[in-house]
């Protein structure tokens, strides 16, 4: 028995219980593995899926319906995501996608993928993956969901582009289950043709008085008569009369956070009222606040992976991307600096870590970094 176990409150009682069991021929380990099996049932590390349907949502976005290849889809909370794995140009990598289907049915998960300029994984999903293909995903994860204990009954959803997906899951659940929650959805897009789920959102808001759907178009066509411009403080105040009574949720492209967060803050809302989905690092990390002057993002450094080998990484790419490119696979999930799964220990050298990385106190103290959100600034050595 380890020395620290003696500090456990019930240590003596438990020891006596085990000895009593042994005397009577009872194996106290009889439950061994059963708890783990139940946990794995509800929180599997991976799910094998089949693409059972592909739905064209807009010219640049498709919904992939993922059905279980064997077994079943585990339960999830509306707003959570799965990490989808794939091999792109010989590189095993992954991307997190929010589930847009309702958690009330578990025959399938829907994820929606939008094209991004110079996309790597999105191009793979949109151009290569077809109906019937097998995909592996993580189990559902994430903290971007409604919590009735802490969050207001009136939710203001601020979505941009493909950031509608977690809200779609929440709205579908609210409508399907008849939940007593009010939603104001401000959904920003460049043009009318880019709005994902428009017809369904319109119909749901017409049928459910607690759902208020407002598309906001920044570059409207001549015939568009709805709300135009960006989602700023004026826009929020126009559609949300009781601004201090709501919880605000934001999900969208990086530029939207940069614009909308200060707008919400200008309304003197307490920070606890603003929830935002985590997002991956900036596509051009050199523009990130705090990026060291004079570093171009093109510098190449060596990364010695202790006990494995030495690889090369660019200052402008995440350490995780460099590891994956070199074929070194480590556990990964959110790719946003939130879940901690991709942590590695930094033995020597310096890295840049942008804002919003959820490092624990122990990480900072013992030199752990999140490989999905850190960038080498010199030759480094790490331990997996
Ligand atoms: S994969 Fe979640 S923190 Fe890196």
Detailed description of the structure:
The chain is α/β, with parallel strands linked by helices and 384 residues long. The protein is built from nine helices and 19 strands. The strands form four sheets. It has a six-stranded antiparallel sheet with strand order 4-3-6-1-2-5. A six-stranded parallel sheet has the order 10-9-8-7-11-12, sandwiched between helices. It has a five-stranded mixed sheet with strand order 14-13-19-15-17. Helix 5 links the parallel strand 8 and strand 9. The radius of gyration is 24 Å and the shape is globular. The chain starts with 10 loop residues before the first helix and ends with a strand. The model has no long low-confidence stretch (mean pLDDT 91). The structure holds FE2/S2 (inorganic) cluster. FE2/S2 (inorganic) cluster (FES) binds next to loops.
Reconstruct the topology from this structure.
Layout: H1 11-23, H2 34-42, E1 46-58, E2 61-68, E3 81-88, E4 91-98, E5 109-114, H3 121-128, E6 134-138, E7 154-160, H4 165-177, E8 182-189, H5 198-207, E9 211-217, E10 227-228, H6 233-239, E11 246-251, H7 254-265, E12 274-276, E13 300-305, E14 309-314, H8 319-325, E15 343-348, E16 351-352, H9 361-366, E17 368-370, E18 375-376, E19 380-383
Parallel strand pairs: 7-8, 7-11, 8-9, 9-10, 11-12, 13-19
Antiparallel strand pairs: 1-2, 1-6, 2-5, 3-4, 3-6, 13-14, 15-17, 15-19, 16-18
FE2/S2 (inorganic) cluster binds next to loops.
């Amino acid at each position: 028995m380890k020395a620290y176990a003696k500090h456990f409150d019930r240590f003596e009682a438990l020891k006596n219980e085990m000895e009593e069991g042994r005397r009577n021929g009872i194996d106290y380990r009889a439950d061994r593995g059963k708890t783990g099996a139940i946990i794995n049932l509800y929180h599997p590390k991976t799910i094998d899926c089949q693409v059972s349907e592909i739905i064209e949502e807009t010219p640049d976005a498709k919904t992939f319906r993922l059905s279980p290849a064997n077994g079943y889809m585990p339960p999830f909370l509306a707003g959570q995501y799965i990490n989808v794995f794939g091999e792109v140009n010989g590189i095993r990598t992954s991307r997190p996608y929010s589930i847009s289907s309702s958690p009330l049915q578990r025959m399938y998960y829907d994820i929606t993928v939008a094209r991004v300029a110079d996309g790597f994984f999105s191009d793979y999903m949109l151009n290569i993956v077809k109906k019937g293909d097998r995909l592996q995903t993580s189990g559902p994860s994430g903290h971007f969901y409604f919590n009735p204990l802490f969050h207001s009954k009136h939710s203001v959803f601020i979505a941009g582009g493909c950031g509608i997906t977690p809200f779609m899951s929440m709205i579908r659940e609210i409508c399907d289950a008849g939940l007593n929650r009010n939603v104001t959805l401000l959904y920003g897009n460049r043009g009318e043709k880019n709005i994902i789920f428009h017809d369904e959102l319109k119909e749901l808001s017409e049928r459910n008085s607690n759902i208020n759907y407002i598309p906001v178009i920044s570059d409207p066509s001549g015939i568009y008569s709805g709300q135009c411009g960006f989602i700023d403080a004026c826009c929020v105040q126009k559609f949300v009369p009781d601004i201090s009574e709501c919880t605000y949720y934001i999900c969208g492209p990086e530029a939207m956070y940069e614009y909308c967060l200060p707008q919400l803050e200008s309304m003197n809302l307490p920070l606890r009222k603003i929830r935002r989905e985590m997002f991956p690092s900036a596509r051009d990390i050199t523009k990130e606040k705090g990026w060291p002057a004079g570093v171009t993002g093109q510098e190449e450094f060596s990364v010695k992976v202790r006990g494995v080998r030495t690889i090369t990484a660019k200052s402008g790419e995440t350490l995780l991307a460099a590891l994956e490119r070199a074929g070194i696979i480590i556990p990964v999930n959110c790719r946003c600096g939130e879940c901690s799964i991709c942590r590695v220990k930094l033995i020597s050298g310096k890295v840049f870590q942008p804002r919003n990385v959820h490092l624990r106190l122990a990480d900072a103290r013992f030199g752990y970094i999140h490989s999905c959100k850190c960038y080498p600034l010199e030759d480094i050595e790490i331990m997996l």
